[in-house]
């Protein structure tokens, strides 16, 4: 069957078998290997991507089910050379070690901050509670997301407008 | 010795730390990881690559009657189906384990654990490979399994390893350490003796990335390139040469980014070998990556020790002696990864942090119909089990004596002036100063206040527990006179090259699985030669690119490879001195070093930086006799002793009296790992280990039913803590450098995994004291805690 | 990695279209909504449908609205495709049926809740599934549509046992209706081995207080302890009585007798019976407290 979807801002159309899992479509068909998989049973959250802005576990979504939808993977987080504050936060606060769960964690963090720009630590812990990290013990991930909350990207045009308003 | 402070970063204030040497700095590997540009084994795609999948045994013990692969071979996407008899013809059906046993690559005669490898399919893609597995028809003659290690040596127990000639039982080894007669004598005259059976159940390292390989055999020049999830690429290359008959110089093992290891990726699994066979048979690259159930059911587990502990003391709380008999379940093949002379690893460090008069332990290893392994999951070669035993026994003694467990520990610590300390089972502890570390943890916890709070809560019927663990690790294996794996000495090499423009590359034999080697090792070099870490590339994970060494496990990277890197940097620095002297037309002994530069004593304005010296070395400067034209060096480091990091942990739990649910409220960890290279990375290592400890103490277990079916074969049943089960860690540190390590560093990778489980269990048992509970085994799940409250503590196995 | 066996896929465009597709493809077709129960089963090849009918485009079934069904009876109508996250975040749900919010907070994890639907949960009918108990306790009505039109089923009729419902192969659960009661309160509590795990045991209760403060109406349900109906035994004991600790203790005792749990990795039988007792007391306590605190008027 044929599916068309938008991934990281690019429209793609591909012929696939109906049973292809979204995670395999992303990794094997589109060669975006930043999305990992870790458990098969939708427990670990390593495969999290954003579907229409919401985190989903791509090992438990068929590629066919994503037809017509918008997908964001870790490769779509940065805007060219400008990192998403979440990516910056993970580097600043040592929110990663082996890097395997990191893409999924960062995408959940991005969705959380879009929804709730100033989350409490417990809200952050709840948001990532469907994802397992074996390396960090989570505290630094929480700090990384807090760092991102404290350092939002402010688009240049917004700053100008603010100044104009103030003036 | 300079003590480096942990400095919380404050990038908002422009505080981007850029230490030239030790100190907090962001990791050099992170930019690729946060962009999704890490490069893991499953990300590798080679031209024409095929995919392998393994058919696994559904039962624990069965004679293989027949395999019919006809239908699978007829599948249009299938290139090959390999069975045990195919491997037998190639002489590859059995492979040596890391403990001098053999392990079946594919079953030829008998299935010995559920999930064992039976056949290997090679197909166009993973979907076709998976489909073809269903088309293989296998007939089994099911046999009674040995599931309970306690029954493995019963007369008449089924003999699991009838493949071994003359084998009539399931016994693997007996091993002992310490002086039995001396220990028995101390016990006989002691005021107080306390006994307890303590079970450390089977757990699994379960890194987020499962194990996998891509094998690429070039038949024309007989060269094998093997991309593997391995913590020990060089050791694997040697073993592959031994197993496959491919000459070692024709094998290149590449370990790219590794998604966590924790010991799981030390061993050589049948899947790796099958990928190689698949590539040889089909003439194409073959990828094999296991799924999570395969990882949990068939790869190296950890622990599975049934320990009978006994502790002897005077009535006023002087601990005199410790003894234990251990029954070790090694599964169907003895495949634990440990130094040859130590079949129970370093378990005989079970005397812990205490000054004892005597100690003795015996360990008996047995086969059972379970997955092989035994040393994995950040255990420092069984120090985990040892620390758990002694720290539980000390708490049980404290209860018996009605003493505060902190006070009892303080009273019995090895004193600072006793180091180097020879314990009663053959170790020489390099350095230690335990009391300040213990006191700092108590201060951070507000220990006395916690005890007051607990007293008040008990009066209200609330269950609060405070658990202490004081551990001494033994890591950095190890001296070649004592330690080898399959005859390979446990040394590590390092090569350092300074390029003409003063940028450097250091090549190391150890393999990061997230520990941040690319940063830490650059910092070690930077500290020694004064080139910024950003200008030093760390190359690892490729046997063609790096010197030989035994890899990363047992917290050995910093103690062994870190020493090699420091020494190679010093060698380069010394060489630079001669070249600088030539450039400055003075004598080497007239030069003085400051970080990054040799200058003339008495005239600091005259000197040469490392970059200038590097250009000089590669340029036209007339070099002194015996100095060749580069600024390179290499060393292989043979550690004179192990290192002995230590720490004091305090855990505070609240137990719901109605449901038995345990909540870890606080966890205070004070670690002493000697010299601290990058405090941020150290803290991260500790956080991760503490989470492991909470996981093992509260929820992680690989259980089996009576038929030998694995009950922990997915993340639905093998539970790992999420962010909701762990607190915001409170960490502190003291610094007691190792006297024999070039920079005084001791290693920290496994300290917290080793040290934290007893703190959590001690806290749970402390919370349950009003119910008369003296001990309960892990995992402290709600049901098991409730049963303990009913007076029904039971071992998990 | 685990991979499903081959199947054909079709996306339904409307309820009528979904019913037509079910009719056309027959017994070997399965409906998929969130997919977090079905797809893992398919990956293990324990489920092997020939056709998968994706109903995620049935936005017409994604709604929460308060409606009047009789002169004096208001209901909350929950479309079958309403995601767990929507239920969890709804202020109306929290205000009217805190038991739903309590339960949603402990169903799987936030990311699974983004996909999972109430219809999918009820139709899966897993004995450890939380919303089935909640719907039993709230005396919800399942609206099922098929070729012959709509049927209204009580939860007792709908839920036939573990993994079994009254929804025929050619039918679709389209809505869950929950009656709104005045002076009522409800609560759910679950014991789990870890966040996101299935229940070791759980209990839910719904209480309406009479004007004199006694218990007017009550329902108690249990999850994962072998009882796929409400604990009707407690009703006679509770109704007409003032809510007291003694009364809750008796209700807990009856609940522990009524259930029929099995020993498994989550615990032995007596522990689960104990939890039935303990959790029944807790949810009754919370439900009565909430009922007493609830403002009697309901903004429609």
TrEMBL record, chain A:
Lineage, top ranks: Bacteria, Bacillati, Actinomycetota, Actinomycetes, Micrococcales
Sorted UniProt keywords: 2Fe-2S, Iron, Iron-sulfur, Metal-binding, Oxidoreductase
SUPFAM superfamilies for this protein: 2Fe-2S ferredoxin-like, CO dehydrogenase ISP C-domain like
Annotated metabolic or biological route of this protein: Alkaloid degradation; nicotine degradation
UniProt cross-references to PANTHER family, sorted A to Z: OXIDOREDUCTASE WITH IRON-SULFUR SUBUNIT
The keyword NADP is assigned to this record: no
Keyword Metal-binding found: yes
Name of this protein: (2Fe-2S)-binding protein
Domain 2Fe-2S ferredoxin-type, first and last residues per copy: 1-77
InterPro entries: 2Fe-2S-bd, 2Fe-2S-bd_dom_sf, 2Fe-2S_ferredoxin-like_sf, 2Fe-2S_ferredoxin-type, Beta-grasp_dom_sf, Diverse_Oxidoreductases
Gene Ontology terms, MF aspect: 2 iron, 2 sulfur cluster binding; metal ion binding; oxidoreductase activity
Organism: Cryobacterium levicorallinum
Highest taxon in the source lineage: Bacteria
TrEMBL record, chain B:
GO molecular function, one term: iron ion binding
Top-level taxon of the source organism: Bacteria
UniProt-listed Gene3D superfamilies: Aldehyde oxidase/xanthine dehydrogenase, a/b hammerhead, Aldehyde oxidase/xanthine dehydrogenase, molybdopterin binding domain
Region Disordered: start-end pairs: 1-31
SMART domains recorded: Ald_Xan_dh_C
InterPro entries (alphabetical): Ald_Oxase/Xan_DH_a/b, Ald_Oxase/Xan_DH_a/b_sf, Ald_Oxase/xanthine_DH-like, AldOxase/xan_DH_MoCoBD1, AldOxase/xan_DH_MoCoBD2, AldOxase/xan_DH_Mopterin-bd_sf, CO_Mo_DH_lsu
NCBIfam families membership: CO_dehy_Mo_lg
Pfam families: Ald_Xan_dh_C, MoCoBD_1, MoCoBD_2
Organism, scientific name: Cryobacterium levicorallinum
Keywords: Molybdenum, Oxidoreductase
Record PANTHER family: ALDEHYDE OXIDASE 1-RELATED (PTHR11908:SF132), XANTHINE DEHYDROGENASE (PTHR11908)
Listed cofactors: Mo-molybdopterin cytosine dinucleotide
Protein name listed in UniProt: Carbon-monoxide dehydrogenase large subunit
From TrEMBL, chain C:
Top-rank taxon, per record: Bacteria
SUPFAM superfamilies: CO dehydrogenase flavoprotein C-terminal domain-like, FAD-binding/transporter-associated domain-like
InterPro entries: CO_DH_flav_C, CO_DH_flav_C_dom_sf, Diverse_Substr_Oxidored, FAD-bd_PCMH, FAD-bd_PCMH-like_sf, FAD-bd_PCMH_sub1, FAD-bd_PCMH_sub2, Mopterin_DH_FAD-bd
Pfam family, one: CO_deh_flav_C
Keyword flag Flavoprotein: yes
Keywords associated with the record: FAD, Flavoprotein, Oxidoreductase
Record-annotated FAD-binding PCMH-type domain positions: 2-183
Gene Ontology MF terms in the entry: FAD binding; oxidoreductase activity
UniProt protein name: Carbon-monoxide dehydrogenase medium subunit
